[in-house]
Amino acid sequence: MGSMESRILEIIEKHKSRDSKILPILHGVQDEFGYIPEKAIKLIARELRMKPGEIYDTASFYSFFRFEPPGKHIVRVCDCMVCHIKGASEIIHRIEKEFNIHMGETTKDGKFTFETVEGLGHCDESPVMMIDDKIYGNLDPMKAMKILRGYEQ
Amino acid sequence: MNLLKDASNMKTYIENDGFHALHITLEHTQDEIIEEVERSGLLGRGGAAFPTGLKMKFVRNEKTTPKYIVGNADEGEPGTFKDRVLIEKNPFQILEGMIISAYAIGASKGFFYLRYEYRNLVKEIERKMEEMREENLLGKNIMGTDFSFDIELVLGAGAYVCGEETALMESIEGKRGFPRIKPPYPAQYGLWGKPTLINNVETLANIPLIVNMGPKKYAEMGKEGCTGPKLFSVSGYVRKPGVYEANLGEYTVREMIEIAGGVDGEFKGLMLGGGAAGFILNGNFLDMPLCFKDAKEWGVSLGTGNIIVFNQSVNIWDVLLNIAKFFEHESCGQCFPCRYGTKRIRKIIEKILEGKGTTEDIEKINATARAMKIASLCPLGSSAMLAYESAMQNFRDELLEVIS
User: Fold this and answer.
1) Distance from the first to the final alpha carbon of chain A
2) Which CATH architecture has domain B10-220?
3) Do B173 and A85 make contact, defined as CB atoms within 8 angstroms?
């Protein structure tokens, strides 16, 4: 665990001199580990002379910070109003059925974490989903499944 | 195109008059620049349409230092994607507008707040700011003058409420995005309690245009009460969804839908202003000019310049449930009317969609809406019911048909 600690300290050090430091540090930690380990909360608090509760208070407010390791790929299916009227629900149902899970969960093999989100800002290609950092648009259930199967390899 | 120029590399931007406005600015006084913005008639593009020049003046008049400026790119309104397209195509114009505004109000530090969903743009924006530092357009002694200014990019983490200006400031300060009680306004008490100017990024991109062409010529684009170019996000059932630029007042809603390829299917209605905090309108509104002033006269608002087109396949109660869920999830939980109201509304609409709605349920929705409007702390709670209320006016028969 020594290496985790030193990596977290490096991230804190990198952003410490910013005026707005807490969000960048939390993003840095999540980018590195995929989630925000409890260890990180404690170290950030120690280094910034704050209380762990204060750091957790901030982090837990935002939907995209997570406190458990996610699956290998994070799939965010947009169910904003535009994607919704263009068939997002059918895509969501199909995914839930095929992977036998609910949105918000990680598949048993750890390959995917599925989430619904409310606006990826790509309404010109609705319905859309984002896998990790990549946007896939103009979907239908079949197309979405085909793309997901491609990530299973 | 004045905003949607393809100028994402610095060379192209400079060839198209880029940073010329900054050069002019630095030869003028702060008050001269603010006066130009005031005379241009520019209204904020983030949804509230507040006069930008006036807002600058408020911050300029404050004696406390340091002062800050924030570029708001926390574009969270469903159906709105104009800021993303603008950042991709013409980022330097936003940054130039931010530097000019900073000079005008006397700020030495700025923050560019980008929503999490656009995180794939972070590296690109950081790189562009680095290029600007190398060219002495950002940082110490900009263009060899006494004026120093730099920008920090802050990435949000998925909270719609952070688009509200005071919540956004809390977020930059590293706290949860709870809106503050206003007044005091950001001009007096903004970031870390200091005077702060906060503008939508599209608003900022208009500033170099005003300085370059002068306020009079700028105001000739558009008409009185709504001047200058505006970006419109057109989506839903149109054949060519996308972001389109037009001068304010230049087109009607109908014409804008035509520009976006026309309706895909048979027209039913549209959502204007925002995909959550917006208005659900019927065909009567197709002839409304896309102008802040006209919209007001028609009893609606252009909001962020968002048009979502519905064809006959769209069920209005289903849309309202989607919006209710959105607000329930995005309510920050700080004030009770919004925290409880959004949940209550969602439950009632679910019941209605199950076919069990009664007139008593409609009365409950109305009472809840009234309470939220009066007592919510920030615009999230007070605008959450705009869609429902406008739908009730414009699709009353359809909505009441399923009520027993």
Assistant:
1) 30
2) 3-Layer(aba) Sandwich (3.40)
3) no
pLDDT per residue over A66-121, tens digit each? Answer: 999 999 999 999 999 999 999 999 999 999 999 999 999 999 999 999 999 999 99
**CA distance, residue B348 to nearest chain A CA (Å):** 19
pLDDT per position as a tens digit, B381-391: 999 999 999 99
> A81, B79: Cβ pair inside 8 Å?
yes
Does B173 touch chain A if contact means CB atoms closer than 8 Å? yes
Residue B301 C-alpha, separation from nearest chain A C-alpha, in angstroms? 19
Q: Which of A44, A54, A124, A130 to mutate to test the interface with B (most CBs of B within 10 A)?
A: A124
Helix, strand and coil in chain B, % to nearest 5: 50, 15, 35
Residue type, B114: L
Q: What are phi and psi of B136, to 5 degrees?
A: 65, 30
Question: Out of 3.10.20.600, 3.10.290.10, 3.40.50.970, 3.40.50.2300, which CATH number does the structure's domain B223-311 have?
Answer: 3.10.20.600
Domain ranges of chain B: 10-220, 223-311, 316-400
Interface ipTM above 0.90: yes
Kindly state whether residue A111 falls inside one of the protein's structural domains: yes
Residues in chain B: 404
- The set of residues, in sequence order, having a beta carbon less than 8 Å from that of B297 and lying 6+ positions away, is none
